[in-house]
Specification:
By secondary structure, the protein is of the alpha/beta class. The protein folds into 3 domains: 70 residues, Arc Repressor Mutant, subunit A (Orthogonal Bundle); 189 residues, Rossmann fold (3-Layer(aba) Sandwich); 122 residues, 2-Layer Sandwich (VC0802-like), CATH 3.30.2130. It is 31% helix and 30% strand. The chain has a 9-stranded mixed sheet, sandwiched between helices. It starts with 7 loop residues before the first helix and ends with a strand.
Length: 392
Amino acid sequence: MNNSILHPAIQEFIIQNTGADLTKLALQKNPFPEVEWISILNQIEARAKAKEKLPTWFAASDIIYPSKVSVEQTSSEKTAFYKASLISGDNLIDLTGGFGVDDYYFSKKFKSVIHCEINEELSPIVAHNFEQLKVENCTFFQGDSIHLLEKENKKFDWIYIDPSRRNDAKGKVFMLKDCLPNVPELLDFYFEKSDSILIKTAPLLDISAGLSELKNVKNIHIIALENEVKELLFEIHKNYSGEITLKTANILKDRTEVFEFILGEETFPIYDLPQKYLYEPNAAIMKSGGFDEVSAFFKIDKLHKHSHLYTSDNLIDFPGRKFEIQKVISYNKNEMKNEILNKQANITTRNFPETVENIRKKWKIKNGGNLYCFFTTDVKDNKIVLICTKII
């Protein structure tokens, strides 16, 4: 860890230049020749990345940032806060601590937290930053977490793991066995050390693939931030066997949209033609695949088995986007020429044979404006366009 970066004059320079054009800055002469110019520039770039994602770190003094890639890959504070709300206890061990954002929030829910990090540069940086952030119940272990677990002669309330994909796994279908640590292989060993394990994975992991590799899964959490899925969490408990609950959360500025259902439970959606209102589920629900469950739970009609759009005559509170349908037209030359040709509109396709790009080009539709057009297929297998206005 390069402590010279903490010199007050250098810290002031980093703060003053956060958000500056780094290409221009890089061409300037280094005002602090005792520290590598690239190190200072890296701090400026990483701090700028942290402004929205990690406001607590951004606001604190004398924070040291790792590479901007580490900042990009870490949990945001909002998802870490939500994650910490799911579990609690006396002690937690994080086997893949990274930049420590998750552990910062776990430390508020557990009496003690152990942060393990294999990267010998990153571990002391996190320890230093936690001092600055006044976190006093976290200890740090630099090295392979397996060694610490083997040495520790006690059980933990929770083990937390965020496995990372091995470099040689690029291009393959994403599987947990292709990550470090190899959780499926180590699961029995982990259960000797804790009865409860929380595994974070990247959003591109297929849920059924995760379930095929893991056992004793009780809950799967899908966490989206501003309608972009950020992470999946597999919550597993030793000796658990039973129904699996899928819990979705879409964290927005002013609220969190939540929806949950039991995986594999038989549900009976209702299908109908478009009515007065249209609903599009948020990204977390889309990832969950719980499309029939949405129809059954909210008592709203599905437009088609594969369209994943819903409709009702009365407006309901819904976890996703809501629209008022102004007009429904058939997707044919005459109707399109009369209603949409040369217009400005936001376009979405669901269960439709053409791409948004092709539709725009073909019908000369400019992007933006207050109109929202959904190109989809109805329950009678007709290609239709729903012309809508958005309900805020």
